[in-house]
Amino acid sequence: MNSEFEIVYKEHYQKLYTLAFRMTGNRPDAEDILQTAFLQAYAAFDRFRHESSVYTWLYRIVLNTSRKYYKESRKLPVQEYAEEHNIPQAEVYDYINRFGRSEDEVLIRRTRETCLQMFMNCMPSKYRAVYTLRSILHFRVQETAEILGIKANTVKVNLHRAKKIIQGHMEERCSLIKPGAPCDCRSYAAYLQHTQKAGFLPDIHVIREKERIATHEFFDEMAELMPIDRLFDVQLKPIDYPEFLKRVKVLRQDKALKVLEY
Fold first, then answer.
1. Taking a C-beta distance cutoff of 8 angstroms, is the pair 76, 120 a contact?
2. Which domains does the chain have, with CATH numbers?
3. What pTM was estimated for this model as a whole?
C-alpha cells in the first residue's frame, strides 16, 4: 500500500466519517461511502497530480460518493404528521409531552442528535456540505472552497443560508435554544420509552459533547446563529481504522478490484 496515501487517509479518517455521516444521516451509508471512496482514491492515487492537497482531494471524493446516497426531507416528522392528520403541530407536541421527562441520559443524547440531524436533512446538499465542512469540521473558508470547487464568497453565502434553514426549524420549536419551547429532548425521549420506539433511533455513538446551550433571547443575527453551531459540536465514532481496512479488503475481493495489493 502507498504509505503516503495510508498516512493521509488514516489521519483524516475521523473527519471523513463525520462528513459522510452528516451528508447521509445514518451510519451504514456513511461506512459504505468511506469504503467506496477509499477504493476509488487508492486506485487513482498514482494519477493524482498534486494540483491540490491530498486531503482536500479525499474530501471531494467522499462528497461526490455521497451524492447517490443523498436524501432531502422537506419537512420535519412532526410537521408531516400534523399535516397528514390535519391537526395543529402544538397538539402533537402536547401529546408527546404528556409522557413526562426521561432521566436516561444516553437516550436523551441519542434523541437530541437524531433531531439535530433531521434539521440537516432538510437542507439541500450544497448547504449541508458547506455547513458540515465549516461549522462542524471547522475548515477555513478557502479550504472549504477548494474541496467543493466553488468561490470563497459562495461558501460564505451558502453557509449563511444553511444556518438560516436550521434556525427556521429550531426557532419557536426547540427548547435547546429557547427554553420553554414545545419540543424538549427529555420529553421526546420519555415518549420514545413509553411507546417502545427508542429502538428506531439511529446508533449515533456520541463520545464527547461540548454543547453550550443558549439560554437567552436572540439579540442579532450572529447571536441567533452561533449557539446553533455548538449543538452540532460532537464527535462521531466510526469503526476502528484496522477493522475499516479489513472491510475494504473484503470489498475489494468481492468486486475483484485490483487495488490494495501488498
1. no
2. 3-69+239-255 (1.10.1740.10), 77-231 (1.10.10.10)
3. 0.71
Report yes or no: 66 and 159 within 8 Å, Cβ to Cβ. Answer: no
Contact 201, 111 (CB under 8 A): yes
Contact 30, 38 (CB under 8 A): no
Model confidence pLDDT, tens digit, residues 39-70: 888 888 878 766 678 888 899 999 999 988 87
User: Mapping DSSP to helix (H, G, I), strand (E, B) and coil, where does residue 85 land?
Assistant: coil
The dihedral region occupied by 227, where left means phi > 0, alpha psi between -120 and 50, and beta the remainder, is alpha
Q: What is the DSSP letter of 75?
A: S
Cell numbers found for residue 71? 436524501
For 218-261, write each residue's pLDDT tens digit.
Answer: 333 333 444 455 555 556 778 888 888 788 877 766 654 443 33
Give the residue among 178, 261, 238 at the shortest CA–CA distance from 214: 178
CA distances from 36 to 45, 62, 198, 227, 252 (A): 14, 8, 31, 35, 9
Looking at per-residue confidence, does 197 or 87 come out higher? 87
The answer to whether the CB of 190 falls within 8 A of the CB of 180 is no
Give φ, ψ of 50 to 5 degrees.
60, 30
Average pLDDT value over all residues in the chain: 77
